[in-house]
Amino acid sequence: MPLKINNLKFLNNLKSIALIVFALLSLNIVNAQEVIIDDEAEKVTADATEQVDSTNSQNAKKVDGVAAVVGDYIILDSDIDKAYLQLQAQGVNTSEIGKCELFGKLLEDKLYAHHAVQDSIIVSDAEIRKNVDYQIQQFLQQTNGSMTKLLEFYKKEDEKSFREEMFEINKANQLAAKMQSKIVEEVEITPEEVRAFFNKIPKDDRPNFGTELKVAQIVAEPKVSPEEEQKIIDRLNQFKADITENGASFRSKAVLYSQDPGSASKGGKYTLNRKQPRMVKEFRQVAFGLQEGEISEPFKTDFGYHIITLEKIRGQEYDVAHILLVPKVSKKAVEEAKSRLEAARKKIVNGEITFAEAAREISDEKETKNDGGQLINPTTQDYNFELTRMDPELYAQIQNIKDGEVSLVLKEEDRAAKVKFKLLKVTDRVNEHEADYARDYLKIKQLALEEKKIKAVEKWQKNKILDTYIKITGEHRDCKFSGNWLKK
């Protein structure tokens, strides 16, 4: 791991490049979110002179265009060229990525996938097919909805064969990612190792950390009246009665009345997975407590009030549909919330109460109020926000606030037109500085841990290369690999 590191941005990117992100970028030929279709791409994808099964070496009929075999997996010459095109489609500057470097990453990823199968690592075929469906829809947006153009680009005769190839590539990617995670899942680091990592960096080469801020906020949300809440509950009960007693369609009700922009057009449909929680706690608890065909009672989440029906259980997956209604907030409630913050700001500025005390007393944001309003950085899970990496919306709100100053009352409105008000304060600022062991311990610990993980992966690769059937052909044997892929 190189020690001459100039800034935190490079440090944070280092672990991603070394472990996962670059691997996914380089392998994700069909997984990319964009497709480039032009004459140059047509020429590149025609490099493989014969179609070869790229998932199982035992099925190979001809070696034309085969760059390497790793265990049960094949890498085609065209795979490398397609990888370049897809990296460029994602905005990656490929001018500094050598062909041998990219080929080396493809070798690594096939090695991961091969041994994931050997280790009986399981991936969900249903989840992979769902990803394939999503990817095809994204690709079709790039071809104006033309499946014919998409099939021409990927040299596929029909949609079925294209989907099969996408399925195999997605499956290999997931297997590789899970194998990588398994290799490093038990890697831990001690304080002594962190100190040794820091001390071995020459003083002149120690990283610089950018300016960091600690930010606190007090939030006031307009209150919904009990009468409005009851009105919404009664309406949902009417929907339920119409469905259960009169045979009305739940899906039709959702299309007509649900206020969930993500699902209303699909009849309120969602698929939940017990192993992959994506919905809010209350939603999941109700959904997993239903029997097939049952409709829940109205219940509340932070988004509003819902009713759910459980349509089908498929192993760990639950197909549900829901209707969301959002209570309306009165103008009087909006004014009350704003006035509440204006009064609090006046007391803080006059020294009658501290910002932290006011947050604990009146803030409606349960995640921060008991901690004096201090925001937690979702990336680092601490209180520090690096200025250059701060969320743009938050940065715009605090950029002109002086240290210790309390902002004016700010109004926020989300996509659902839900309004809230907030006060902000920069509670601490640390200017750009050279890494300090005590002050920056958590960041240094993370870097030390990532270095240890990289070493664990390198050791695993070294051993598995020797234990795996690997054949590299043609000009690719001239590459100078970091690993012993040629087994010399």
How does this model look, in words?
This protein is an alpha+beta fold and about 500 residues long. It is built from 17 helices and 13 strands. The chain has helices at about 10-20, 20-25, 40-45, 75-90, 100-120, 125-140, 145-155, 160-185, 190-200, 225-245, 250-255, 280-290, 330-350, 355-360, 365-370, 390-400, 440-465, and strands at about 65-70, 75, 210, 210-220, 270-275, 300, 305-315, 315-325, 385, 410-415, 420-430, 435, 470. The protein has a 4-stranded antiparallel sheet with strand order 9-4-11-10. The chain has a 4-stranded antiparallel sheet with strand order 5-8-7-6, sandwiched between helices. The longest helix is centred in the C-terminal third of the chain and has 27 residues, at about 440-465. Mean pLDDT is about 80; it is low at about 1-65.
Q: In percent, how helical is the residue content?
A: 40-55%
- Spell out the helices and strands N to C: HHHEEHHHHHHEEHHEHEEEHHHEHEEEHE
Unreliable stretches covering 5 or more consecutive residues: 1-64
Broad shape: globular
Question: What distance separates the N and C termini?
Answer: 24 Å
Overall radius of gyration: 28 Å
Q: Work out the helix count.
A: 17
Summing up helix and strand content along with how strands pair, one would put the structural category as alpha+beta
The tally of beta strands, per DSSP, is 13
| Main sheet strand line-up | 9-4-11-10
- Main sheet record: 4 strands, antiparallel
Kindly estimate the percentage of residues that lie in beta strands according to DSSP. Answer: 5-15%
